[in-house]
């Protein structure tokens, strides 16, 4: 679950992104200052909370963090507007240190690799990567499904040349790190980086 806010470009609206709408035709139902967005299958994929500053003090632009108390306020707004659903807290970091356990060439590409990358608590994700410097044994930065990148791009499961991919192994440029190299390639972390730890700390 991603909370996003950009008053200058969107207005005083908090956007809560729950799932990938997969580019389908969405339906929007607004009650009072709360809008629920559903995909074609009827799954709730997002919420919009208008005039949010009347209820919460939000600092920053782009992806923002909310406390459990602030999440409870959103749930009260949902209930008061007449909707039945509730938001569930998700404090799991989405951009983390990962460990590339295996890396093999993609069977239908001359530049893609298929990795098995551990992200936390033994969880291993299959991630297709196009970086020329990807290798097994590296500590890397992984954007897991549901992550929002610094440029606003959302990361969801996808398929690359017929192979499922569940995240993205990131470059320094994609992470908007200062002095990021111009050449293509993932960011390789020191060996003492802790798998599963949020990046940056």
UniProtKB/TrEMBL annotation:
Give the highest taxon in the source lineage: Bacteria
Q: Does the keyword RNA-binding apply?
A: yes
- State the InterPro entries in the record: DUF4479, NA-bd_OB-fold, tRNA-bd_dom, tRNA_bind_bactPheRS, YtpR-like_sf
Q: PROSITE patterns recorded for this chain?
A: TRBD
The TRNA-binding domain sits at 89-200
**Keywords tagged on the record:** RNA-binding, tRNA-binding
- What GO terms are given for molecular function? tRNA binding
Q: What is this protein called?
A: DUF4479 domain-containing protein
Organism, scientific name? Enterococcus faecium
């Amino acid at each position: 679950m991603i909370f996003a806010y950009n008053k200058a470009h969107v207005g005083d609206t908090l956007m809560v992104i729950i799932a990938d709408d997969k580019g389908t035709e969405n339906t929007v139902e607004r009650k009072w200052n709360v809008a629920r967005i559903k995909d074609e299958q009827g799954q709730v994929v997002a919420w919009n909370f208008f005039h949010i500053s009347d209820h919460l003090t939000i600092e920053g632009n782009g992806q923002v963090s909310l406390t459990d108390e602030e999440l409870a306020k959103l749930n009260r707004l949902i209930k008061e507007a007449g909707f039945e659903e509730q938001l569930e807290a998700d404090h799991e970091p989405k951009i983390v240190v990962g460990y590339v356990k295996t890396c093999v060439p993609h069977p239908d590409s001359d530049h893609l690799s298929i990795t098995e990358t551990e992200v936390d608590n033994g969880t291993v994700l299959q991630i297709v990567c196009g970086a020329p410097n990807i290798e097994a044994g590296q500590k890397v930065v992984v954007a897991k499904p549901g992550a929002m990148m610094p440029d606003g791009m959302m990361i969801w499961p996808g398929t690359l040349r017929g192979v499922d991919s569940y995240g993205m192994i990131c470059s320094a440029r994609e992470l908007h790190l200062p002095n990021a190299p111009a050449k293509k390639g993932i960011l390789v972390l020191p060996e003492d980086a802790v798998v599963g730890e949020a990046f940056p700390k």
